Amino acid sequence: MTATVIDGKAFAAKVRGQVAEGVARLKADHDITPGLAVVLVGEDPASQVYVKSKGKMTREVGMKSVEHRLDASVSEAGLLEVIETLNADPTIHGILVQLPLPDHLNSDLVINAIDPAKDVDGFHISNVGRLATGQKAMVPCTPLGALLMLRDHHGSLSGLNAVVIGRSNIVGKPMAQLLLGDSCTVTIAHSRTRDLPDVVRGADIVVAAVGRPEMVQGDWIKPGATVIDVGINRIDKPDGGTRLVGDADYESCAEVAGAITPVPGGVGPMTIACLLANTLTACCRANALAEPDTLTV
């Protein structure tokens, strides 16, 4: 069997197109422009690249893009003051604080200072609790992207067995909650799970988010299962240089699976697309307007 490749880059472009259409309707029908503010603290090179990319894509879909770049030595009070200002700004519907923050700043305190309705990363404790209890919440972007890809590939997920490998607050736990919400039977596994390969072999859906390069092997996969690889790991190549790989061994898994996401080009592009989708959703909720039902849960 050769797995169908789930093209995250193409699907993300489709999602961004849907977001752009929603933004255009808001402007035309209600004279409202969704606004996304990104706060970057310090000079971390990877974070700077992410913020630049987010700003570019935000503008491309017609949204207002605001960036606050703060010195790495900014005080906690100074950062919280910026967040308070954005919370009170009616033209800003989404706020994202780029992580990681410098060591002297308390990330949990900072994230929980964001208005939950504007928390488009879905990390605020209120959104975590709402998602866990089945209430309307802002949902973390990477798990949301994975869910949208699964829905697109399978249609209904009801009754399918899903194994999520990884228990992080950013991916593993919210991914499990989203799959439960779509009526999957869900197992959360991790690197210390006993007989992990046997656990994975019972899954119709495998979400690999454990942070270990190429850990999931093809002989772990049930024939015909769908593998969603969230991992992004840089490893050395035998002849020098490096390459990106996921948490699943792509070649061996693709021989057994029915469908699989590649790395790169799978779940990764969906993260920014879903950030834009969340901003559109937040704007609609703030103005008591109908939400884009294909872009949220």
Described by strand count, sense and barrel closure, the largest sheet is: 6 strands, parallel
Any idea what the radius of gyration is? 19 Å
Helices and strands, in order, run as EHEHEHEHHHEHEHEEEEHEH
Q: Which blocks of ≥5 consecutive residues have pLDDT under 50?
A: none
Q: Proportion of β residues?
A: 15-25%
Detailed description of the structure:
The protein has a six-stranded parallel sheet. Strands 3-2-4 form a three-stranded parallel sheet, with helices on both faces. Helices cover 40% and strands 16% of the residues. The mean pLDDT is 96. The chain has ten helices and eleven strands. The protein is of the alpha/beta class and 297 residues long.
Question: What's the SSE blueprint?
Answer:
Layout: E1 4-5, H1 8-30, E2 35-41, H2 45-60, E3 64-70, H3 76-88, E4 94-97, H4 107-111, H5 125-132, H6 141-154, E5 161-165, H7 172-181, E6 185-189, H8 196-201, E7 205-208, E8 226-229, E9 233-236, E10 242-245, H9 250-254, E11 259-260, H10 268-286
Parallel strand pairs: 1-11, 2-3, 2-4, 5-6, 5-7, 7-8, 8-11
Antiparallel strand pairs: 9-10
What attributes does this structure have?
alpha/beta, 3-stranded parallel β-sheet, globular
